[in-house]
Write a structure and sequence with these properties.
heterodimer; A: about 210 residues; alpha/beta; 6 helices; B: about 500 residues; 6-stranded parallel β-sheet; 4-stranded mixed β-sheet
Chain lengths: ~210, ~500
């Protein structure tokens, strides 16, 4: 007997009393009913609590905000499908000195290249206001998982329309079979005497730009 | 529904790091002598407990989420064979490879074989209870494969050649100075000027592991959840070491207990609310990674999953105990447990300490295995664990159930009655009628003779000596309550009783 057959048969033997699968009570909240302004306010509060930096700006101000956040960076990476308009400020603001690296499925950057890159700019699929969580699903504006992981500074643009109030609302908006990363604040550990330290292996700095 | 057609078989118990090598009372007695351990643990458990309470109180629907979580898990257990097959079909359809392992040895061999196929001799590891349970690191080492733990706490424990003592924060028994000393002693290239500040130590770990992450070709992980309807796996973590291992290497090998399934993607919304708040006391953990088989151009292209039984089917066969398999390894129960708080995790022997370990370990191994029969007694049955459990595992009831299984398993194996048998028989006689009890109580004042001048009994003989080993008993009063009552009320008429002395006092 293969291990598979053996284990399945053991489980069937164990369930000889034929327990019934209960109905799942789903009385928990599935909608928050929050207005956009309230959603933004709550998301900002949660993100700040996690020691992420947040800027709430009009969509037209995104390029200037990105440029100011990238000040001092020698290089940054973007996914091929990122809204090019968001990077417009990089030349106008005179910070074009930072080298832009584009990661694409056809020409992915090596891990060593990513490690030598100071920052990354991505979009996001959806955010959860109540928990301060940003969800990336690997689609064009976010790219593959490695680019938002290896560089030490992650600048993430969240569109106000993509903010959900609570987790059930957010998970309904994404396809679970995509490679998904949920981010709530920068990398952190509490393993030494439970004292929270921001920044271990993931990006130590997380900047979130919320675009109205 | 499937109908069982096979022959009933003996339960197949688990192997690996699931056994207490000595009885809990013995181990606990030794651990209690370590004041540093108790101080570290007391600080840690109380801090997490308070944080957890604060974020749980924020949610208006916490109890509804617990109800849903509990019912989902009960449903998973009832439908486990079907769900496993559904998961296998979906994970495989997207390029993942499934392996089945009956026990620790088989799981270890599968992982080692997969690593060998890659030609590598090093793997990076995400913290995982399942691989701790099967003793994977030790097995790989015997096979000439080096496994690097990448979670900070696991790294500390590994460098110190120690064992984890908590599910969530495995190095909780060590303080910052101990950790600095371990780094200085065991971490190659550690800066001799290393201070004991947590940010400095965390950065030292970052430096130490960075090159490993960037060059590793093979990673090993556990999984927090597996979604049957999509074939998706999930790992919940904080540091980013998980993301590093799950996305940068070419080959990813995940080891997961068969009980970790959830039926649908929608169920994730329940557990991703229950788990972070119950474990670290955060609204959400910093990073969660989800992957479904292989995604071209993103992450490992060789993706394996080892589905582990190792005693889970045996635990499932215990109708009363099977809900222990609902456990999502949040560790909320150990952070509220008065016994765990004082003894620490090592006293439980197994990979799974605390209240959940006290039921899970004997269920996985069988109660007669080694010293695991002592584990269900490692509790005051105060019920705090049940209140804290996000999936409502009734740990106190299962503890009592396992105690009875233990007693039954020992029944008839002794030729002469034990002290416990004699004591129980005497108690049964004494409690069977008021007259009997009255007679026994007449003897109580004799107990005062056993007490010293401080009115405390310090040492009882025989089996009762277990009680006085770690506490004193106050000397019995000069008269029993029943004697006092009889004396107070002997002149009172039943209907119009004269106010007693106490009543007069309260009436002024």
């Amino acid at each position: 007997m293969t291990a598979r057959e053996d284990i399945l048969s053991r489980i069937r033997t164990a369930l000889q009393d034929s327990p019934e699968a209960p109905q799942i009570p789903r009385e928990y909240r599935s909608e928050s009913g929050m207005e956009t302004e309230k959603l933004i306010e709550l998301l900002v509060d949660r993100l700040v609590d996690y020691k992420a930096q947040v800027a709430v700006v009009a969509e037209a101000e995104v390029p200037a905000t990105v440029a100011s956040l990238l000040e001092g960076a020698r290089s940054y990476v973007v996914p091929e499908g990122l809204d090019g308009g968001w990077l417009a400020g990089m030349d106008d603001a005179g910070t074009g000195g930072a080298r832009r690296r584009v990661d694409s499925p056809a020409e992915p950057l090596s891990v060593t290249d990513l490690d030598g890159t100071d920052a990354v700019v991505t979009g996001s699929a959806v955010a959860v206001a109540e928990t301060g969580t940003i969800i990336l699903d690997g689609s064009a504006s976010q790219g593959r998982r490695a680019i938002s992981l290896v560089p030490d500074h992650h600048i993430c643009v969240v569109k106000a329309a993509d903010i959900a109030g609570i987790l059930p609302e957010a998970l309904r908006r994404i396809d679970g079979t995509r490679p998904i990363t949920m981010i709530s604040g920068p990398s952190a550990t509490s393993d030494i005497e439970l004292e929270r330290v921001e920044g271990v292996h993931g990006p130590r700095r997380l900047d979130v730009i919320i675009a109205r | 529904m499937t109908t069982f057609l096979g022959m009933p078989a003996l339960p197949a118990f688990g192997s690996g790091n699931l056994f207490a090598g000595e009885s809990f009372p013995k181990a606990a007695h030794r651990e209690l002598g370590n004041a540093q351990l108790r101080a570290n643990l007391g600080h840690a458990t109380h801090t997490i407990r308070d944080k957890r309470q604060a974020v749980v109180s924020e949610l208006p629907d916490w109890e509804q989420l617990r109800d849903a979580g509990s019912a989902i898990k009960e449903s998973v257990m009832a439908r486990l064979p079907d769900l496993l097959e559904e998961f296998e079909k979906n994970f495989t359809a997207r390029g993942g490879v499934i392996h089945w392992a009956r026990d620790a040895r088989e799981a270890n061999e599968i992982v080692a074989g997969l690593v060998r196929e890659t030609g590598e001799t090093e793997v990076v590891k995400v913290k995982s209870m399942a691989t701790q349970e099967i003793g994977l690191n030790e097995y790989l080492e015997e096979q000439g494969i080096e496994a690097f733990e990448t979670d900070l706490a696991e790294l500390i424990v590994q460098l110190d050649h120690d064992k984890p003592s908590h599910i969530l924060v495995p190095a909780i028994h060590k303080n910052r100075t101990e950790i600095r000393d371990i780094f200085l002693r065991e971490m190659p290239g550690a800066d001799p000027a290393l201070t004991n500040e947590p940010p400095v130590l965390a950065m030292a770990a970052r430096e130490h592991l960075r090159r490993k992450f960037l060059t590793a070709k093979v990673a090993v992980s556990g999984a927090n959840f597996a979604l049957a309807d999509s074939g998706t796996l999930a790992v919940v973590e904080s540091e980013g070491n998980g993301r590093m291992c799950l996305t940068l290497p070419e080959t990813l090998i995940t080891v997961m207990g068969i009980e970790k399934l959830l039926p649908t993607w929608q169920d994730l919304e329940v557990f991703m609310q229950l788990l972070p708040r119950s474990s670290t006391g955060e609204r959400m953990n910093p990073y969660t990674s989800l992957w479904t088989g292989v995604t071209e151009g993103d992450g490992p292209q060789n993706v394996h999953l080892v589905l582990l039984d190792n005693g889970r089917s045996a635990a499932l066969a215990d109708e009363m105990g099977r809900s222990a398999l609902h456990c999502i390894r949040c560790s909320a129960c150990m952070n509220v447990c008065p016994v765990y708080e004082r003894t620490g995790g090592h006293a439980y022997g197994s990979t799974y300490p605390g209240p959940i370990g006290a039921i899970l370990s004997p269920l996985l191994t069988g109660i007669e295995a080694e010293e695991n029969s002592s584990l269900p007694y490692a509790s005051s049955l105060c019920g705090a664990c049940y209140d804290a459990c996000p999936v409502k595992i009734n740990i106190p009831d299962i503890l009592v159930h396992l105690r009875s299984v233990d007693v039954d398993s020992k029944r008839g194996t002794r030729k002469v009655p034990s002290q416990m048998d004699v004591g129980m028989k005497a108690a049964s006689w004494a409690l069977s009628s008021g007259k009997h009890l009255g007679l026994v109580e007449k003897g109580l004042p004799l107990g005062r003779l056993a007490a010293g001048r401080d009115k405390k009994i310090k040492k009882l003989p025989g089996i009762a000596g277990g009680w006085t080993q770690s506490r004193d008993i106050p000397a019995p009063p000069t008269q029993s309550f029943r004697d006092w009552w009889a004396k107070e009320h002997k002149s009172a008429a039943p209907s119009q009783a004269a106010p007693s002395r106490d009543d007069k006092e309260t009436q002024q």
